[in-house]
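Practice problem: predict the structure.
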Amino acid sequence: MSNDSPACRPTRLLEVRAVTKRFPGVVALDRVEMLVEPGEVLAVIGENGAGKSTLMKILAGVQSADSGELLVDGKSLEIVSGVGVEAALAAGIALIHQELNLADNLDIASNIFLGREPRRGPGRVLIDHQQAHERSRRFLRMVGLDLDPATPVSELSIGRQQLVEIAKALSVDARVLIMDEPTSSLSEVEAESLFAVIEQLRDAGRSIVYISHRLGEVLRLADRVTVLRDGANAGELSGAEMTHDAMVRLMVGRDIELSGRRTERELGEVALEARGLRTAAFPVHGLDFSIRAGEIVGLAGLVGAGRTELLETVFGITQALGGRLQIGESDLLPSDPFAAIEAGLALVPEDRKRQGLVLEMSVGANLSLPSLKRDAWAGWLNRRRERSISDEMIGRLRVKTLGREQVVRYLSGGNQQKVVLGKWLAMEPRVLLMDEPTRGIDVGAKQEIYELMEELALRGVAILFVSSEMEEVLRMSDRVLVMHEGRIAGELDRAVLEGIGGEESVMRLATGGVG
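Answer:
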């Protein structure tokens, strides 16, 4: 009998066959295939809009498919009418969302057993909190957390909340854990803890489906890689085939080299200067720095070092407790975003969905929002100018959209980020503040953001950007300011960044050492 015959073929833990899903005007998945073997880490990668999240939601029962088949242990689950979350969990499939799905007002044990609480008393109507706490300890140990189950989730770091989500999945005996961008909000230390847990789960026979744009993590963790492009299978890699370049080639359908600094720039006068600036988060430290026109300055540091708080104070979202700012020749009181915008400042926030966009409004409306007051005539909106701005930015930034009237919620992450950028570029800012400008976007969109940053700098815009990706900081920065516990611990110039010990110099300063 042939080894490939059905009788000899081993049963797959999970098998996806020809799954198709359509949304109005878009084919999200086109006959996608995927296999998950017992005890492996399968990475699923692709550009934003490739169909990764849609596929995972179908597997977890959150969405239905239009056609196709899902098999678990060789048995088919109904996905056309919708598996349903409970049925997916019963089959051993659990999805850990990028935006964690925990109740902050409850303790750890209550979150782990939410909706499945152990009961006691007549008619078993009372929640047995003692049993919930005792059972929680086992699952917490499995993910390396030595915590009291009575601890409120609100008191945990994002990294520990991520591990509680995994413990919650293990409590329903999940054999396939789907992790969607699990390290996007984690520090390096928290990410390392997560990687150790993933490796332990794999060794214990659990399977992990790992979605990430960080290809270094994929290379470290994955046994195999499945690549999606434009809603269809683009290829699969395993073993020695798994290289950074090979993954990028399959993701974008061509060779792409992530490059940043390509041309030398002549820097202008000081565009932004801070003297003794004190933030509400770290009021004891006065911050001094300056940025010149046409300069790209990176703001590095560990999570919690005060980088985001600095940008928000400069932009006036959070009132400064002291010090002064100067934009060109003009002094600015950093306590009012409207004054900041008038002075020529713009801020691209870290959380584009909550802080940068109005998700239920159209692409065009989002692109023109900051310009409405400027372009109004006698208090009336200038609709013609609004449409002109929208069309110009959609074309200039190559936003992939059905048109200016498309609701921005339905764009990919990379295209949403372009809309956030576009609305500020229409204001022609002198200083652009960018907080994690490429977080959660794919390699192709990253390159486009890098090219845009370079183009703006060539036009004389001063750019101050925060990034937790060391490669991005080293690639894009003319200088790097490194923050540690609310103060600027040091400054590194281009010569140091390009040297052999550039990364080590950044990390020494970020951890309180000397660069």
